[in-house]
Design brief:
mainly alpha; Protein Spindly
Amino acid sequence: MLEQKNGEIKHLSGEIRNLEKFKTTLNEEVNELQYRQEQLELLNSNLMRQVERLKEEKEEREKEAVSYCNALEKARVANQDLQVQLDQALQQALDPNSKGNSLFAEVEDRRAAMERQFISMKVKYQSLKKQNAFNREQMQRMKLQIATLLQMKGSQTESEQQERLFAMLEQKNGEIKHLSGEIRNLEKFKQRK
């Protein structure tokens, strides 16, 4: 009898252990399901916020599109007005009796005159530049001649020749200074042009 009771107790103890294991397993599964549910709720909340943000962005884009369409229409109207004004201006320019045409002709005449003056000054500048280079070359030759004469023992004739050469040198120096001044003036005029 006692052995039978002991057997039943062992059997019941085994079942209790099995039930406790099963209970632990169920608790773990419940916890896992709760965690998944929380994650899904968080994901759902994030998705809802994204949907709201996308709706707001869509509304803003629609407003921008309407604004762009209005601006485009205004630009088209303004372009038509400008085209009309341009056509009128062209007609006035082609009309010999138009005041605007005479003003345009006057401006064109002044431009052509300034262009002719510039070409003339440019030619003169090139000519003066060549003349200046030639004079510098002549001066260099004269300096060499004077240096040679100074090395020689001078007589009265050589002294007179030396003075004459110095006078010529001074004259050429004056010409070079004058030409250099004109060249600078022409270069300034050229830069302004």
